[in-house]
Prior knowledge:
Layout: E1 2-10, H1 14-22, E2 38-39, E3 52-59, E4 62-74, E5 78-85, E6 90-99, E7 108-117, H2 128-150
Amino acid sequence: MHLLETQLRLQAPLAQVFAFFADAANLEALTPPELRFQILTPLPIEMREGARIEYRLRLFGVPFGWRTRIAVWEPPHRFVDVQERGPYRLWEHTHRFASDEGSGEAGVRVDDRVRYALPLAPLGELAHPVVRRQLERIFAYRTRALLARFGASRG
């Protein structure tokens, strides 16, 4: 089992940030272009517990499908998506949103926690350093895209 955690502070109201994440059409803007991310589920998608989203993307040039299910939906503070079909043995991505109102400015802290496991254990673990670098690069791109859209909070 592996864990990837990121934290980001955005300069925008909680409702606005959560609404952006709640619109599945925005996922493409948060994904590096070379992954050729494409949502296959017809849009708009009603985000709620139990909603399923089908994607197609490329990783290291290899195309594959991915299906996630929204396992927890608690607007505007948290949601969790889990992989039902895809490249990982386990993928559980928890998104948390907290208002930074006490800092004197409108801002939101966005916390991501991804628990993941690679397939084909124990041999699959040999690929973990490469997979980890790729995930860190994808989340760094996502951070830059969010900062460009909402700006950074000073908090």
